[in-house]
Amino acid sequence: NIQEETITKLEYSLQLTEIQYREGSNSLSDVLDAQVSLFQARDQLASLRLTRLNAAVDMYKVLGGGWKVPAKLAEK
After folding, report:
1. What's the pTM?
2. Phi and psi (nearest 5°) for 55?
3. What is the pLDDT along the chain (76 residues), one digit of tens a residue?
4. What is the largest CA-CA distance in the chain?
5. How far, rounded to the nearest angstrom, does the alpha carbon of residue 6 sit from its chain's CA centroid?
């Protein structure tokens, strides 16, 4: 998956940025920017997974599959 590969690369980039920060060749701003990029990519991956799961549920329902909510959950 391209998104997962992107996250792996951003994790590596963050590690390098943190090392460079500790050695004095990067600023804290660089570390924070790397963190933001990683968190945005993770958020995007979670959104993509949610969209995929919602589409699977919708397809299941359209094809006639039952979708019953347990009584305890329906009451909430």
Report:
1. 0.75
2. -65, -40
3. 899 999 999 999 999 999 999 999 999 999 999 999 999 999 999 999 999 999 988 888 888 876 676 777 666 5
4. 61
5. 11
